[in-house]
Write a structure and sequence with these properties.
mainly alpha; flat; 2 domains; 5 helices
Amino acid sequence: MRFLFENAPFVEDVLNRLKTRCLLAYFGGGVATGGDKTQHKFLHLMHGAWAETQNNLQQFFVASRLRVTAWMAVGRGSGEGGVGEHQERFLREFIAVRQRLDRKDNQLFFR
């Protein structure tokens, strides 16, 4: 129970994805409209939804974690004079990624 309360946003996201996949299986799979091979398609889609949910939960437990959030690590730095160093590195990398993505051909513009 403690896990659910400590990780409520993650659990809510996983359950919302499962709900969406179930609705798509029911309405998109033809069950609601009585389409051909509805039961097989519905079961296939539901199996995929459950497998994805299990995978998300499993990955949550086995993924490596930072001891502190990335933003806290950037702000805290490592000793005296380290704060500015980490912040500058973060900003340089962020600007480099932004410049790489900010092209006309991918239509992703930053203002």
